[in-house]
Amino acid sequence: YYFISIMGKTVYSRNPNTSKGKFINKLVAKSSGKDLRVHYKNTYETAKAVKGLTIAKAKQYLKDVLAHRRCVPFTKHYRGIGRTGQASEFGKTLGRWPEKSVKVVLGLVNNIEANANAKNMKNLVIDHVQVDRAAKGRRRTYRAHGRIGPYLSSQAHIQMYATERAVDVKK
To answer: Which end of the chain is more exposed for a tag (fewer CB within 10 A), N or C?
Structure first.
């Protein structure tokens, strides 16, 4: 799945209305951000942590991470990450509190909620989250003996959408 940008419009890598080749008509609330000035690796782990949560649970989780009551578990990009007891909630030992990434993902979740309210959608679950590396931001640093070295930043593209889940009815 690739994240393509055409004339400022986000083309999402996955279509929520198809499942195993069959067309399913679902209402979808989408949100995306391009060339965001946040670390890719931290944002990847943060976005992965909110996938599968409802909008309300995702917002509460991200606010708890900002308050350092819960952590973001690091599962893929975990070299040099410290251990914390808060990660045991996820069956992991490694976790962090990446504030800038959390604020960006929280903004996207709020945007999904606003888009859903415009479509009169309720009971939303975040079904799709994708974080991609963006082009590196290039600056320069001055080195010894008159040399100049690169000073790169690792930016990210993010896309996510949420769909409605049917309420379970007891038989």
So the answer is: C
Q: CA-CA distance, 31 to 161, in Å (whole number)?
A: 6
CA-to-CA distance for 52 and 73, rounded, in angstroms? 15
Q: Where are the strands (E) in 84-164, listed by range?
A: 95-96, 124-133, 137-142, 148-153, 156-164
Parallel, antiparallel or unpaired: strands 72-73 and 95-96: antiparallel
Mean pLDDT, consecutive 10-residue stretches, the chain (171 aa), reads 51 71 73 92 96 95 96 93 92 94 95 93 91 93 97 94 80 78
Both tokens assigned to 129: 């989250």
Q: Is residue 11 part of a domain?
A: no
Q: What is residue 23's predicted lDDT score, i.e. its pLDDT?
A: 58
Q: Are the CB atoms for 150 and 65 separated by under 8 Å?
A: no
Cα(76)–Cα(85) distance, rounded to whole angstroms?
18
156 φ, ψ (degrees, to nearest 5)? -140, 150
What is the distance between the alpha carbons of residues 155 and 157, in angstroms, rounded to a whole number?
Answer: 7
Question: Does residue 126 fall inside a structural domain?
Answer: yes
Q: What's the predicted TM-score (pTM) here?
A: 0.86
